[in-house]
Design brief:
globular, mainly alpha, about 90 residues, 5 helices, about 70% helix
């Protein structure tokens, strides 16, 4: 699975434009799906943090923050975790 595939599926799932994955917008409605896509890119691909960051027009430290944020949210919220797992299954199929 490629980072582009992940960006496309997550944008589709959260009903945002693909271009918003790399935009500078920071509203939660855009930022959260972007973080989810970064998390999935880290867990489903072998790409390095800088490579993932470049795909989202972000720094690698932003990717680290996104991964930690989504991991924490999965730990705290079972419904959110199942949503992430569902996206992972769709991408892995």
């Amino acid at each position: 699975v490629s980072i582009e595939d992940i960006q496309r599926k997550v944008a589709e799932h959260y009903n945002i434009r693909l271009s918003e994955m790399t935009s500078k917008r920071r509203e939660r409605s855009v930022a959260r799906p972007r973080q989810i896509a970064m998390y999935l890119a880290k867990t489903l691909t072998t790409k390095s943090l800088p490579d993932i960051g470049r795909a989202f027009d972000r720094d690698h430290t932003t990717v680290i923050h996104a991964v930690k944020t989504i991991e924490d949210m999965c730990f705290a919220d079972a419904a959110f975790k199942s949503e992430i797992d569902s996206l992972r299954r769709v991408l892995s199929a």
